[in-house]
Amino acid sequence: MTIYLVDIEHITHTCPAQPEPHPFDTRRTIVDTIPGGECRTPVTIRCGTTTAVIPCHRHEPAKRQCGACRNIVRERTITTRTHEVAA
Q1: Which residues of 61-86 are buried (b: 16+ CB within 10 A; e: fewer)?
Q2: What pTM does this model have?
Q3: Which of 28, 41, 82, 86 could disulfide-link to 66, CB 3.0 to 4.6 Å?
Q4: Strand 43-47 relative to strand 50-54: parallel, antiparallel, unpaired?
Q5: DSSP bridge partners of 15
Q6: CA distance 54 to 39
Q7: Distance separating alpha carbons of residues 86 and 83, to the nearest angstrom
Q8: Source organism's superkingdom (predicted)?
């Protein structure tokens, strides 16, 4: 399984239409990637007389993919900043 480690930054502000602070910009930064490796259960597909072997992540839903093809996203840090407007 491929693991992605990300940092998330939410930038909030207030406006006349919605006086409560709310996020208007969310940024995600990939910090590290741990590759899962080669597909362990490739799928053979046929189209007419042509056959091809493809990795299971290109054909199967997530719950039927092998462990090497699954993706996991882990959040390392979540930061919230307030956008200040100069008057």
Answers
A1: eeeebbebbeeeeeeeeeeeeeeeee
A2: 0.69
A3: 41
A4: antiparallel
A5: 18
A6: 9
A7: 10
A8: Bacteria
- According to DSSP, the residues that pair with 7 across neighbouring strands are 29, 77
Tokens of 21: 């602070």
For the chain, the first-to-last Cα distance in angstroms comes to: 50
26 neighbors 81 (Cβ within 8 angstroms)? no
List the structure tokens of 79.
């930061």
Residues in the chain: 87
Other C-beta atoms closer than 10 Å to the C-beta of 12 total 15
